[in-house]
Specification:
Blueprint: H1 2-6, H2 12-26, E1 33-40, H3 48-67, E2 73-80, H4 96-100, H5 120-134, E3 140-143, H6 144-149, H7 154-162, H8 164-171, H9 177-180, E4 186-188, E5 203-205, E6 210-214, E7 220-224, E8 230-232, H10 234-245, E9 247-253, H11 260-269, E10 276-280, E11 283-284, H12 301-307, H13 310-318, E12 325-326, H14 331-346, H15 351-356, H16 358-362, H17 376-386, H18 391-401, H19 411-428, H20 439-454, H21 462-475, H22 482-492, H23 501-508, H24 510-521, H25 524-527
Parallel strand pairs: 1-2, 1-9, 2-3, 9-10, 11-12
Antiparallel strand pairs: 4-8, 5-6, 6-7
Helix pairs in contact: 2-3, 8-11, 10-11, 13-14, 17-19, 17-23, 20-21, 20-24, 21-23
Length: 528
């Protein structure tokens, strides 16, 4: 039944799944393997982009399986471009002098500066696999070096020799005049130095499957393009890989968009139909600049996971992938709460709406039922008001608000409490700026004190409390009304925004809130 709804679901993974199915139908493929691919450059550590590409591709794969009712065998293939020459030495690595001696050698030939693997490429591939395994991704790993050396690419490389002129006709118009005179899609591995060479071809023999060039010492050399003695430039390599591996779906960042037609044309030249392609927007930093590993202006996966659960990061990647989004610490609480809201809604939704719900895609149609009864934003304000530096302080309030709740009975709540404490210590507390209330605000807070004292001290219905807070704002003619709530947070918590104030009071406690307001009116928070 859900396959029927998958035919019309508007969630972007289903849109991509339908495009892929249309492609397969056009090719007459009703069964057999369907390959989803992601690529990885192992010169640097896995990062947020790596996670985003794999998690988003997995979402499309799951949507495709749902759409086709598992009629096809599907796999996610993660290919490491580890035969690329090391063009520069990342400054954070040990053994800098040693690594500089191996510049331009394939990454799987460069010695491992950490001393734990056979090569730098092997070390970074292991880091990639450990990274992906830590998130529970289901994937098949592939090394480009292995594929070049073990014959996987041989037949397609021989086609590239046969159709060398056609490939050059695609590539040369994309290059500057000077580069055109020396360009070759083939990069031989020097038999004397072991380096990846960017040299022009003196001859290309389609019948023999060989290329001829001058080695670094000027000696003329002829090599077969098979057996790992030659690799392709990255743009032709992209298209060759699609053809050789039968790739059916691949997504990539907007920085590849201009080259995507080149990849596709080369794939066709080599006798295959290009895969369904999905272009996603790149993440920006807090000031709107493109995130760069070299600049260090991004937010790492490890940093996100210090303050929020993995599912919130998956959610952030799910939402509007074709829209550029600013990625900085301030977006984390919102992502957590929106994920939790969708999770809470899932149980009551019909099948059609569930396929539109982000948690279906995050959890492959089987989301958990353990939903936090307290929002993350509220947790943060609770940590702020109580100056909590451990979860014990937080549970002193949580246990009173949620009947019978303990860290053991509510592990998700306990996890969020830990995240809230860390986030408070690192971001909220250092930036708290209390201010004194204006005369108008002071009068309103005095009124609020009267109303809170009139309530049952054990009142935990946030809507009841919110009604009183709202009435104070109206009575004292705050316009717009949100300026009243902003004043409460600025004066009482040293920040400009927060969740529903009534909900905050309900969990923090009416007596504690009364004391907090009294301290603020006495000037103790500003002085402190």
């Amino acid at each position: 039944m859900s396959a029927q709804f998958a035919l019309i679901a508007k969630a972007w993974p289903f849109e991509q799944a339908r495009l892929l199915k249309k492609r397969l139908d056009k090719l007459g493929r009703k069964s057999g393997p369907v390959t989803f691919e992601t690529g990885y450059g192992p010169s640097g550590l896995p990062h947020l982009g790596t996670f985003g590409e794999v998690v988003r591709t997995t979402m499309v794969l799951n949507a495709f399986n749902e759409l086709t009712e598992n009629a096809y065998e599907t796999k996610l293939l993660c290919v490491s471009d580890d035969m690329d020459g090391m063009r520069k030495v990342p400054p954070h690595l040990p053994e800098q002098d040693m690594l500089h001696e191996h510049l331009q050698e394939p990454l799987t030939v460069v010695p491992d500066p950490f001393g734990t693997h056979d090569s730098f490429g092997a070390h970074m591939n292991a880091r990639l696999r450990a990274f992906l395994d830590s998130f529970g991704f289901s994937y098949e790993f592939a090394s480009a070096t292995d594929y070049y050396r073990n014959g996987t690419y041989d037949a397609t490389l021989l086609k590239a020799v046969e159709r060398y002129d056609d490939i050059m006709k695609v590539m040369l118009p994309t290059l500057g005049a000077e580069r055109q005179t020396t360009y070759s899609p083939f990069l031989p591995i020097s038999p004397t130095t072991g380096r990846v060479l960017y040299v022009p071809m003196k001859a290309v023999d389609a019948k023999a499957g060989t290329i001829t060039f001058d080695d670094e010492d000027g000696t003329e050399v002829t090599l077969p393009v098979t057996g790992g003695q030659v690799k392709l430039q990255w743009k032709p390599d992209f298209g060759m890989r699609w053809a050789a591996l039968g790739v059916d779906f691949e997504m990539f960042g907007k920085d590849h968009q201009a080259n995507a037609p080149v990849y596709s044309r080369i794939c066709k030249i080599l006798g295959a139909e290009p895969p369904t392609q999905f272009v996603y927007e790149l993440f920006l930093d807090s000031v709107g600049e493109k995130i760069s590993k070299s600049k260090g202006n991004g937010l790492s996966v490890e940093e996100w996971l210090r303050y929020a659960p993995q599912q919130s990061l998956s959610y952030y990647n799910f939402v509007k992938p074709k829209t550029a989004k600013r990625l900085h610490f301030d977006v984390i609480p919102k992502a957590v709460d929106e994920y939790m809201q969708h999770l809470a809604a899932y149980e009551g939704q019909d099948e059609a709406k569930r396929l539109e719900n982000p948690v279906w895609h995050i959890h492959n149609g089987n989301p958990p039922q353990d939903v936090s009864p307290i929002s993350f934003a509220l947790m943060l304000n609770l940590a702020s008001a109580s100056s909590a530096h451990n979860t014990d302080v937080m549970w002193g309030f949580i246990g009173r608000h949620v009947d019978g709740a303990t860290p053991e009975t509510h592990p998700v709540l306990d996890q969020l409490a830990g995240f809230a404490v860390r986030y408070f210590e690192d971001f909220v507390q250092p930036n708290k700026v209390f201010r004194s209330p204006s005369d108008k605000e002071r009068a309103a807070m005095d009124d609020l004190l009267v109303r809170l004292r009139a309530l049952d001290p054990a009142e935990q219905d946030g809507s009841v409390i919110q009604t009183e807070v709202f009435a104070v704002g109206k009575a004292h003619e705050f316009e717009p009304l949100r300026s009243w709530f902003q004043a409460l947070y600025e004066v009482l918590l040293g920040q400009s925004q927060g969740p529903r104030f009534g909900s905050f009071v309900a969990i923090y406690g009416i007596p504690e809130t009364i004391k907090l307001i009294e301290r603020a009116l006495a000037g103790e928070l500003v002085d402190g």
